[in-house]
Every structure is written in structure tokens, then in C-alpha cells.
Amino acid sequence: MLTVFSPAKLNLTLRILSRRLDGYHNLCSCFLRLPYWEKMTIMKKPQGDRRDSVETYGATIIDDENILVKVLREFRGKGWNIPNVEIKLWKTTPPGAGLGSGSGNAAALISWIEGITGKKAKVEEKTAIGADVPFLASGYNCAIVGGIGEKVIVENVNFKYTFAKLILVPRWSCSTKEAFRLIDELVEYEGRREEEACMEALDVVSALNLGEKIGLLPNDFSSMLIKAHFGYKLFFECFERYGALAWGISGSGSSCFALFKEPSSAFLSAEELEGFDEIGTIIVME
Q: Catalytic residue positions?
């Protein structure tokens, strides 16, 4: 039995650039990896046992919607010789939290499959599983991405500091489909350019490397989510009181986060936030 740790990510910036004919959206975002986010074990089943077993702990996921089941089905369908497996997955955060943890699970499983088969999955094959799977399957700690999230524009964005990250998962949920529907109504896409969004992301990275306070990070979903959920305002005020350099919402929600230079400040902020009933999960990563 093999134990595998899978990553998640934060969106330090997120700009929606256009709606595509296929219904997806072109975007530009700065992804920051959260390593060792969740754990799973993988065990090959004996020959003759022709059924996979995927068990999830900490969240309820229907088999037909389980991204690990999708990975096995898709790659076997392409002729990859993958043995039947027993997988146990321990979730840190629920699906739809805006952290890409499901895609991180998929990326880890794909890496294992590549190892046992000696094959390498193409970017488009990973993208068919999830738009952020190519980044999460890469070795990048931070990168600026485009397309629907699969295209790396700037590789290996480097930070001068190792920031302490305080991550909150509220008890409310945010529908990605509904969020994009509202964005289509609220945002004027004409004139939005990938180059400008990329430069904005690089400016954020530069400011953080100088230790400058940024405050609310650029995310096109932020204003409507803050308006819909007053709790975000309270969380952000708490982040600021304890000296966070930057804070924001990851993806289309519901998770939010803050970056601190001092881990002690992140822990003090987390301690105060423990009193909020609206928060389901609080995580500090140094």
C-alpha cells in the first residue's frame, strides 16, 4: 500500500477575460500551490479482482462524481494498462471550496499512474479531468496561468518570503456555475486582455516580495461574494488587525485566505476566528 499526498491551490489573483463558445471562460490567475493538502492510500488489487474501490472520508462524494473514478475510467479508455485498485482518500476540505483539492487528488493519482505505466499524460488529457490539474500535476510552487486554467503563462514564480497562510472554509457554499452566470451579467469583457491581467498578477508578486501590504487581492468574484456573505468582511477585518499583507477569496469561493510574514500573527488571527460559527474549517500553513 502506498501513501500519497495531494496538493491544492490558492488563487492569488483571478480575472475572467471572456466567455467561450463552449461555455467555459478564459481567465488569467496566479496559482499558489498548497502542498500535502490531502492524503490518500493506493493499493493494487489481486489479479482477478476486477473492481475498483474508492472510499472517501471527511466528505460525501457520489461515485459518478468522484474525480478519482473519472481518472481511472478516462485513462483506461485510452488504452492505459492500469490495475484495479483500492483507494482511500481523506478530505481536508469539501468539494466546491475554491481550492482545487479534487483536481489535486486527480493530479496525484495521474502521477502514480504515470509511474507504474511509464507513460506521460498530455496537458489536454489532464485538462479533460480538470482545468487546474496540469498546474497541480506540475512541480511549480507558483505560476501564472491562462486559457481555462490549463495554460502556464509564467512558470515558477518565485517569492522572497515563505508566507504563513491562514485558510478559512466557511459553512456556506458557493456554486461555481452560478458564480460564472453572474459574472457574465456583471462584467464587460470587451477590452479585457490577458497581458494586462498577467502584469497585474506580476505586480502583486512584486509587492509581496517587497513586503508591502496589498489588502484585498484582485478577484472578479470578490465584490459579489462579499455582498452576498457579510462574513467575508468580518474575516478580512480580522486578517488586517493581525497584520496580514494580503487577503482574498480563492477561485469562485467559498474559501478565503490571508498571507502573513509572521506565523505567530496567522495563529493569533486563527485563534480569534475560532469564535465564528460561520467557519467550518481553519487551517494555518507555515
A: 9, 132
Domain total in the chain: 2
Question: What does the alpha-carbon distance between residue 17 and residue 111 come to, in Å, rounded to a whole number?
Answer: 31
The dihedral through the CA atoms of 226, 204, 184, 150 has a sign that is negative
Residues 7 and 107 in one domain: yes
Question: Which one, of 281, 278, 274, lies nearest residue 231 by Cα?
Answer: 278
- CA dihedral of residues 131, 136, 142, 143 (deg, nearest 10): -30
111 annotated as a binding-site residue: no
95 assigned binding-site residue? yes
Q: How far is CA 32 from CA 61, 115, 139, 142, 265, in A?
A: 25, 25, 11, 4, 20
Domain at 69, CATH number? 3.30.230.10
Q: What is the pLDDT of residues 238-261, one digit of tens each?
A: 999 999 999 999 999 999 999 999
**Which structural domain range is residue 173 located in?**
164-285
Is 98 assigned to a binding site?
A: yes
Distance CA 153, CA 162 (A): 22
Q: Mean pLDDT, the chain, as a whole number?
A: 94
Residue 126 covered by a domain: yes
Cell of 11: 488563487
pLDDT of residue 64: 65
For the chain, how far is it from start to end, CA to CA, in angstroms?
29
Amino acid at site 31: F
182 is in an annotated binding site: no
Q: Are residues 80 and 15 in the same domain?
A: yes
